[in-house]
Amino acid sequence: MTKSTDSGWTVLVAEDDRVARILMERSFRKAEAKSNLQFVQNGQEAIDYLEGNAAYEDRTTWPLPNLVLLDVNMPKRDGFEVLQWIKQHPQMKKLIVVMLTSSDEPMDIKRAYELGANSYLVKSPLYPEFTDLIKCMDTYWLKHNRTCAL
Q1: Measured at the alpha carbon of residue 111, what is the angle toward residues 109 and 115, in degrees to the nearest 5?
Q2: 92 with 145: CB under 8 angstroms?
Q3: Rounded to an integer, what distance in angstroms lies between the CA atom of residue 74 and that of residue 41?
Q4: Cys staple from 43: which of 30, 32, 82, 83, with CB 3.0 to 4.6 Å?
Q5: What is the pTM of this model?
């Protein structure tokens, strides 16, 4: 978990792989994204964060995100379960949810969109390409895209 310390948008990242989290932090920094990354390690922690349960009840420290990045394969609850939970809750269903995963399986892509994902992005294992992906995502979703308030 990373506490919010910088100004900018809040991005909740549900990612169970430690190396992927480090790569994501570096990529956001290199892309000069002005986002506060909040990491959770599994799907249940993502839901707890969004509900403001237990350790996440202080919204000053753990603000509601502007963007949620979900890995498909996570312990406890997978990304699809979290996505479905988000879209079934009236106060959360307008959140921008991007599936950011290593799975390029057509069935996973189809399922994500059927459940209401706003985007489905496949992680590149190459750092420069991954950083480019993060920069494009940040530019589109957090700078150019317009949303309504939750």
Answers
A1: 120
A2: no
A3: 8
A4: 82
A5: 0.88
